[in-house]
Write a structure and sequence with these properties.
21 strands; alpha/beta; 9-stranded mixed β-sheet; Archaeosine Trna-guanine Transglycosylase, Chain: A, domain 4; 2 domains; 28% strand; 6-stranded mixed β-sheet; globular; binds S-adenosylmethionine; Rossmann fold
């Protein structure tokens, strides 16, 4: 269930007008394609496709990005409320809805008196059934230990391969990532020999892509303020074999220019926290317009720091996985107003929309869930001219 206050809905109507209902409905469903990025430092996409296909998995190669391969998502299927109920946290419920097992960190509430082997239904906090399965661990014990599979899922709303259980994942050949997220590093266009700064880097999806695009020959500095997320990012980068090519720092990157005054970057990626309104499937979400206002001023702070660390002639790419004009076009335009040495250059992605549908044409790229069957995303490219 989406609980958005009236001002937020008004803000979304600025973007979508009469197609607002279509946009909101598309958020509840996953896209028909589940994308993963091939780690091209370790394998050719064709080789990974061949391996997966040899085990009977149907896999396609994206029409535009050769490193992007995808599985088809099937469904929706009927999920019945039967047996006892396990309540899952938002993100866990969204993965389970796609067929993943439920792991201990995602369990919010255990059924009373349940024992291992019982049939259970996994539901969202709001009570929406997302999967049927079997309890394979003591649920209350799992709540304490926070490790391991608790419910083995056999029927879910949608079905797609469990990417994290594939040998190709364990061997670091693939990274689960949406197609628009892959376009961000492509738009950044990092080159060997350059200094690349990723200001909001964890869990490291775009950082890893930068390493691959430059074949490990650029100097990548990745920052994130969350110690735990940075620890996870290190694990991910080391699974992919990318850790030797990245310097990872725990830092509040809004103050990068003060805390790391020696940085002179050729390219800076700003992928800051946002309302994430483009992320799908979204089975439940509660947001207010106040979140948009708070995040907008936070996002501007990262861009100001980016302006201070990028070299003249350098590039700043700003991206979000949200759709409001406030967090996207307005952030960029307020930045351009304040920093006259920057100009927006065309983000040429043929399959993306230019700017906001029906509002105005612009140089920025937009992905819209109901139009592109992809997560909602925004990408702007800014060049420092003086
Ligand atoms: C949208 S996520 C980044 C996703 C990442 N770029 C990727 O592609 O995998 C935003 C990140 O910003 C980080 N963040 C939030 N505030 C920050 C701050 N003040 N300084 C540095 N990182 C921050 C969050 O911890 C979060 O990991």
């Amino acid at each position: 269930m989406l609980e958005y206050d009236s001002r937020l809905l008004e803000s979304l109507r600025r973007v979508y007008g009469e197609s607002l209902e279509g946009f909101l409905a598309s958020l509840a469903q996953p896209g028909r394609r589940l994308y993963v990025r091939v780690n091209t430092l370790r394998a050719e996409p064709a080789e990974v496709v061949r391996r997966l296909a040899s085990r009977g998995l149907e896999v396609g190669v994206d029409e535009e990005l050769p490193e992007a391969i995808y599985f088809t998502v099937e469904g929706p299927f009927e999920v019945r409320l039967r047996g006892r109920v396990v309540v899952a946290a938002k993100e866990a419920a969204e993965s389970v809805a796609l067929g993943a097992n439920l792991y201990a960190p995602g369990v919010l509430r255990c059924p009373e008196g349940a024992t291992v082997g019982d049939e259970v239904t996994v539901v969202t906090r709001g009570g929406l059934p997302v999967a049927e399965g079997v309890l394979v661990a003591d649920c209350y014990e799992a709540l304490r230990r926070r490790r391991g599979v608790v419910v083995e899922v056999y029927r879910s709303l949608y079905r797609a391969p469990r990417v994290r259980e594939l040998p190709e994942f364990t061997e670091g050949l693939v990274y689960p990532q949406s197609l628009p997220a892959m376009y961000v590093s492509r738009v950044l266009d990092p080159r060997p020999g350059e200094v690349i700064v990723d200001m909001c880097a964890a869990p490291g999806g775009k950082t890893g892509h930068v390493v691959e695009l430059t074949r490990g020959r650029s100097y990548v500095l990745a920052f994130d303020h969350s110690r735990s997320k940075v620890a996870r990012m290190r694990e991910e980068l080391s699974r992919l074999g990318h850790l030797p090519y990245v310097e990872v720092w725990v830092a509040d990157s809004r103050y990068l220019h003060e805390d790391f005054p020696w940085i002179r970057a050729d390219r800076v990626l700003v992928d800051p926290p946002c309302t994430a309104l483009g992320v799908r499937p979204k089975l439940e979400d509660r947001r207010s317009y106040r979140d948009v206002e708070v995040l907008k001023s936070y996002q501007l702070q990262f861009l100001r720091a980016a302006a201070a660390v990028v070299k003249p002639g350098g590039t700043v790419v700003y991206s979000t996985c949200t759709v409001t004009i406030e967090e996207n076009e307005e952030v960029v335009e307020e930045f351009l107003e304040e920093f006259r040495c920057f100009e927006a250059v065309d983000v040429a992605i043929p399959r993306a929309s230019r700017g906001v549908t029906g509002v105005y044409w612009s140089r920025y790229a937009r992905f819209h869930p109901h139009l592109h069957d992809l997560p909602g995303y925004f990408i702007a490219k800014l060049v420092r001219t003086c």
